[in-house]
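[job 0412] stage=fold_complex status=start
inputs:
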Amino acid sequence: MKSRALWGIALAVGMAGAAGAAERGPVTYAADINFAEDGSVAESLTGKPGNPENGAQVLAQKKIGNCIACHQVTALKDYPFHGEIGPSLDGVGSRYSEAQLRGILVDAKKTFEGSMMPSFFKTGGFIRPGIGFTGKPAKEPLPPLLTAEQIEDAVAFLMTLKDE
Amino acid sequence: MRRKAFATAALVALGLAGPLSADPVDDKLIVNGETELVTHTKAPDYIDGLDEIWSGWAFRAAETRAIEADDFDNPGMIFVEDAEAVWNRVEGGAGKSCASCHGDPSSMKGVRTVMPKYNEKAGDLWSLEDYINDCRVNRMQAEAWGWNDKDMVNMTALISVQSRGMPMNVAIDGPAKPYWEKGREMYYTRTGQLELSCANCHEDHYGDMIRADHLSQGQINGFPTYRLKNAKLNSIHARFKGCVRDTRAATYKPGSPEFHALELYVASRGNGLSVEGVAVRN
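[job 0412] stage=fold_complex status=done
writing structure:
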């Protein structure tokens, strides 16, 4: 109760930067990344091509990329519940280059400003980061949402999604 | 909206549509065949991001909506009955029960519609839970309940039911204003490793599916809610905590100053929707 009351006073005198306000550290990634102007990333994060079959799992599995939480993907129709937040990924391999897709996966906000899509290779620069889904505070740098290998696998899978 | 229609059409084509339905259902919620609740109305003019407001009820499956429409089917009402017993139970050094001072629970009519509100004497924003604990500690000389204790959540349900059908009407001006502004800032702050704000899901994408979940506007007029998922009543702050945690963020504590401010702001987004008095959700 005491801390509540104190907080009330802080508020009354016009608190500016207290909890919840945008305090964040520098943006970091799990490795050095060269983004092109358009947000694309030319170089493979692992130095080798990804495995599209593993990439399909990255998109479909809740515990990995969980991409279908937000995207519909016809090729993954055996996995239930595709979301409607982002565009369908059908034909995405025809719409974008490999470098662009890699860039979207590393940090979609570099390609689509303010995107709701998470930045899968980002490790720092978050507001109130937590340890996974525990709700407990975490120290940056965090492990990225996807490893370099998982991102390359996902890119390889996305490249197979061509327009008929 | 065009994109959404397309995505839904694609899902239908895949035969995945099943229970998926994009938009809120424009159905009437009439409880016990007599009390009609407002589940859809014009948004308050101070909410820039919304034209219309919808109760979370309108986003739930037909079976779930039906359960809320009948108190005999609504398992949340069992907890209201439990709270009635506690209302009359003498506890604490003063030898009093809630009933000793307040008489019948119906004396609480209207209380829920203005919560949370600024309390002059305390000089702070108080939720219904704070008022309940103030009575327990200072008038009954009984122990304070924890924010999410069963007795606490049940008591907020009993008190909410007394306002069933009345419009939510929290004050956002005067001394409440700095809290409201703080809550608004929180609502639009993208937290956690997923960098998601309340607005990302509940303003920009209500009506859309996020995996198996049909996103509502995240309104709190129905709270406390009975969730089929955990078979008990759930407080507003417990729900907030879950949603913040799901952004892979460090959460705030139920009862924290931050959640008080957020509660006021979110409540104000639903001003005009009826108090549901034990909503049913999945």
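[job 0412] summary: Chain B touches chain A through 48 residues (CB under 8 Å).
[job 0412] exit 0
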